[in-house]
Amino acid sequence: MAGPLPKLATTDILYSWLALYHAPGVGAVTFNQLLEMCLSPVELLQTGTEQLRKLGLKQASIDALRQPNEEAVAHDLEWHSKPGNRIMCIQDPDYPELLRQIPAPPPLLYVHGDTSILGEPQLAMVGSRNPSASGQRTATEFAQHLSAAGLIITSGLALGIDAASHQGALDTGSPTIAVMGTGLDRVYPARNRDLARQIAEQGALISEFPVGTPPLAENFPRRNRIISGLSLGTLVVEAALRSGSLISARNAGEQGREVFAIPGSIHNPLARGCHHLIRQGAKLVETAQDVIDELGILADTCKSLSQPDEQDETPGHTRKLGAEYFQLLDNMGFDSTSIDNLVTMSGLTPAEVSSMLLQLEMSGYIASNPGGLYNRLR
Questions:
Q1: What is the CB-side half-sphere exposure of residue 113 using CA atoms within 13 A?
Q2: Which terminus in the chain has less CB density within 10 A, N or C?
């Protein structure tokens, strides 16, 4: 591979990289193969047609190097010139080393925010877009504890577990990294626009996709390999068997990174993906300290966590709840259940159970779910 570049300091160098990047038929594999031949994009734009053909480039790619896509390159250059934006090449000394080591790493990264955190020890957190209330809370709390231990939380800005993980890190004042499946001139899903703004202010948004790239379905598996590739390990919080989160976990395993999974109820379909991963060799995780114990040697900046006592987490007003409330919690267990089931198990009237469930929800012990079901949170 050609020698290090000075952070793409000049427009001419960046123009050449972008011209090659936008050439049809030149994906990450071909781009990196050309670099390994010690051919820089600047040299390739000056290379004759026959020589380019001998390098294995198709005619469409050759034509694009002879006449680059000026409009696409101009859009990227304009974006790059704005404050807080940067296009980073794989030969840049600031390019994250762990990502550089994966198969077919992105030749270019578009970054909005703090580029300095890309090389910090990271943990990927992924999971369902439609998690249970307890799963969402678990993601937030794990992200809070792991951020406090010195890990950067990296995820994909999706609804559900991704968003909860980012928010957990932000809540502690820590940076977090969101890997996008679109160009960085847009946010997908749109309802996470405010979250994306907070992440950019406190951490970084990154993408391998050029400015203007829409949220195409095929972009997200590619995004997932970057999420796992940046990270020392991937933690799956809740996932169904056909969840895209399992793609991130598989990528992590193939990249030689740790895979962690949080188990759940055998009755919860969102736990089945995690159970599958555990059967395949993922490390079963019950506390954030379990992750730190595995990654501490790899990420020597990590601090040991002191888990707060459960009683200390309980808001003062909830201690006034009588014993009958905690008996109802015991009847509930940790599976989603209905009022009718609780009436049957507890022997209380529907009115009594409804009133007690309201108090338990206000105290943070349970959450209501669609379909009139309730979930115990702790």
A1: 22
A2: C
